[in-house]
Amino acid sequence: MCGIVGYTGPREAYPIVITGLKRLEYRGYDSTGVALLNGGLKVYKKKGRVADLEENVLGKDLHSNIGIGHTRWATHGEPSDRNAHPHTSGSGKLAMIHNGIIENYAQIKKELLNKGYHFTSDTDTEVLLNFIEDINKNNECNLEEAVRIALKRITGAYCILLIDEDDPETIIAARKGSPLVIGVGKGEHFLGSDASPMLEYTKEVVYVNDYELAIVRPDELILKNLGNEKVTPFVTKLDMELAAIEKGGYDHFMLKEIFEQPSTILDCLRGRLDANAGTITMSGVQKNIEALKSAHRIIIVACGTSWHAGLVAEYIIEELCRIPVEVEYASEFRYRNPVINKGDIIIAVSQSGETADTLVAIEKAKEQGAVIFGIVNAVGSSIARISDGGAYTHAGPEIGVASTKAFTGQLVVLTMMALKIAKEKGSISDERYRHLLQELADVPEKVAALLKNADDLKIIAEKYKDASDALFLGRGYNFPIALEGALKLKEISYIHAEGYPAAEMKHGPIALVTETLPVVFVATKDSYHEKIVSNIQEIKARKGKVIAIVSEGDEVIPGLADDVFFVPPADELVAPILSCVPLQLLSYYMGIVRGVDVDKPRNLAKSVTVE
Ligand code: G6P
After folding, report:
1. Residue 609 beta carbon below 6 angstroms from any ligand 1 atom
2. In angstroms, what is the span from residue 70 Cα to ligand 1's centroid?
3. Could you identify which of 135, 196, 337, 523 might form a hypothetical disulfide with 146, taking C-beta atoms 3.0 to 4.6 angstroms apart as the criterion?
């Protein structure tokens, strides 16, 4: 959600900024803009894709050694050229881009209107910029000081980059709640919402913290807190190659990421799970093992697909560790004054590590003394950094807006974590523990095997492409997978879909069943098998169309269902890691036949950094 790029140094800034913005496209956006300094401030902005802006600036003089660029996801004011960033100040000398929301902007706008300021957009960003300029003019302080004063007065979230016509080598940047990474080059600096815009130039990066302000020049990076005290920049070495964020021959990032799962799951297990030795090595878990073993309750907070991973974990942790688990939408948890007791553990699950609701939820829980665990994919992200412990999912950069490989990574990490706690606690038998370790170790190969039949799902997608609605049903460990299957289909094909526990279907959704309604059953072989067979029969009796995800060797369901996809047999506890993959493919192919831009579906953002 909103991408930010900046450059200052000896190179041409425009191509760096534009390429960087393209790499951040996955975050979701509706308009694009850049500001350059070339004998004065030049701002180009356009509603639509980065490519639309590129077309719009053809033939213009884009020479500049400093630049800031932005992809906007509308919050205040419709997507339009006018509301796109960068915004310029009343004097026309300052340009600023902003990711986040200024909550008290209306009050500040009123004050500025009374002073005679005019606004050309509906955005909170233009208000903040003019507020900074106003302080700069009236308080006889320099721009850096004005930014600091302004930021202390505002409430909300922000990452801002600001350039000034009168200081043509400097970018002033600051963050609170929205990510900012600064790449350190030789005589040059790069800025981005994540590290992808700077990958080919430098591997040395600084993750800016909340309430920090950076003064960035080609050969100087000064970091300060809002109290004007210098902070030493902590330089981290990036462990990411350019190839990881490119499509590698696939038509879409989503497809590439689905097909990467055998290797991303292996990366997630690597160095942690040793089925032969019967060990799980997770240093973040080990460090806090006493707190985890004796936890009175585990509360999992997350949003979207990550919330579904949390639901699967609830079933697994309660089964193996006998610890009560609650799974909360972070957006609800943060506002509803939840009861957090001593001995409670909070697990935050997040691909991006930047989701605003999840981040604030754990900040609040931390204030109340809870121990926070982060299960995060993006290395160095905010959630990873504020957690007391945790584990990375190691799925690599996920670019497609719909989460796929990060989801299976979350399931693997949470399952390993549950097994480790259960083993330490003694709540699992040795035999079951060993069996499940082997089952987990076998997952990458099984995912690779089922991916070989991906074309079967293409045929199923073609058959049901005109459906207006779909139902997804599952029981037990596969119930959250039914929810995830429905979410994926909605996101990627725009078909209205709902997920339900299969038995709950009788309490409402069954009223929707007609000859044209596809009902997807996630029905791999498990202890609920006979029950779900009855549910399939109930749908068939009402002439619904059944698409079933079943285990190889199932002799019952294929005889009942209209369409079947087979996955390799697995223990019911690890089955969700397999059964979610065909549902990812089904929504991908549905999206493709229905002409959806699957990597960037409308209105969605990869990283939701506003609440
Ligand atoms: C957005 C994305 C989803 C993701 C959710 C939570 O809605 O489009 O794919 O599941 O945010 O994101 P997180 O990064 O916290 O997992």
Report:
1. no
2. 20
3. 135
Mean pLDDT by 10 residues, the chain (611 residues): 92 97 86 95 95 95 97 87 95 95 93 95 95 92 96 93 97 94 97 94 95 97 96 90 80 95 94 95 92 94 98 98 97 90 93 93 91 92 92 92 97 98 96 98 98 97 96 97 98 97 90 93 94 94 95 96 98 98 98 95 84 74
Q: Say yes or no: 554 and 572 in one domain.
A: yes
Q: Does the residue 268 lie in any domain?
A: no
Q: Is 302 found in the same domain as 227?
A: no
Instruction: Give the Cα-Cα-Cα angle 188, 212, 375 (nearest 5 degrees).
Output: 95
| Cα distance between residue 572 and residue 477, in whole Å | 7
Ligand 1 pocket residue status of 306, Cβ below 6 Å: yes
Residue 44, classed as helix, strand or coil, is: strand
Which is the closest atom of ligand 1 to the Cα of 378?
Answer: 14
Residue 521: which of 582, 474, 467 has the closest Cα? Answer: 474
Q: What is the DSSP letter of 497?
A: E
> How far apart are the C-alpha atoms of 377 and 410, rounded to whole Å?
8
Residue-number span of the structural domain to which 432 is assigned: 292-441
Residue 451 shares a structural domain with residue 421: no
Q: Which residues are catalytic?
A: 2, 606
Bridge-based pairing of strands 389-392 and 371-376 is parallel
CA distance 103 to 98: 13
**Assigned token pair, 421:** 């706690």
The pair of structure tokens assigned to 539 is 């749908």
Q: Does residue 65's CB lie within 6 angstroms of at least one atom of ligand 1?
A: no
Angle made by CA atoms 502, 503, 506, in degrees to the nearest 5: 105
| Ligand 1 atom, smallest distance to 403 CA | 9
My answer on whether 409 and 499 are in the same domain is: no
Q: How far is the CA of 280 from the centre of ligand 1 (A)?
A: 28
Same domain? For 401 and 452 the reply is no
Domain boundary among 243, 263, 284: 243
536 with 548: CB under 8 angstroms?
yes
Nearest atom, ligand 1, residue 305 CA:
10
